[in-house]
Amino acid sequence: MITGGDGALGPAVVQAFVAAGAVCHLPIRGASPPTRAPDPGLRRTGGVDLTDEKAVEAYYAGLPSLAASVHLAGSYRGLPIAETSRSDLEGMLLLNLATAFLCCREAIKSMRKSGGGRIVNVGARVSEVPIGGAAAYTVSKAAVAALTRALAVEVKADGILVNAVLPSIIDTPANRAAMPNADPARWPKPEEIARAVLWLASPENRLTSGALIPVYGNA
User: Fold this and answer.
1) CATH superfamily placement of domain 2-215
2) Looking at residue 194, what is its pLDDT?
């Protein structure tokens, strides 16, 4: 299961999993999945609001046995602290922390029934190396890191490994347009991050849990 499959990082992660032979279940927020050519490696479900607790519960309840649950969904909003409202903070916590929390919780319920699995969250470099002008975002991603570590301890005996990747600015068309004077050659590529996510979620990862993996190279 991969959230945020249609986001900036999502397509590269989905492609990596499908290429590895996985069947990927993709929740889509819209009322119905986009019309696309049939793909035996993809199962899209429309109308899934990941901020809605009941919707997340229902979605996971309808999934088959899960080998991995990968949570890419999230958002960025950078504002100086003096211009950041309580609503801005709550929005970052809802979109980044609450969605990951709900998906982790439901994935763990499912994986306990099947004897184990892998969970991968997406944090951010700013939780380890803070920057100015994005306090609400930083706090929300630091919370995702804390959630990852806490769950890794809690579900260790269940055979569930929980980790997170910490990207910096990802090399996407949107980020290049937003920062035309930056050097995108220093930014991690979606395909590079996808390889790290795939390994953490794969059966090859037999020991690593509670790790916050830096995926920002020389950025």
Assistant:
1) NAD(P)-binding Rossmann-like Domain (3.40.50.720)
2) 97
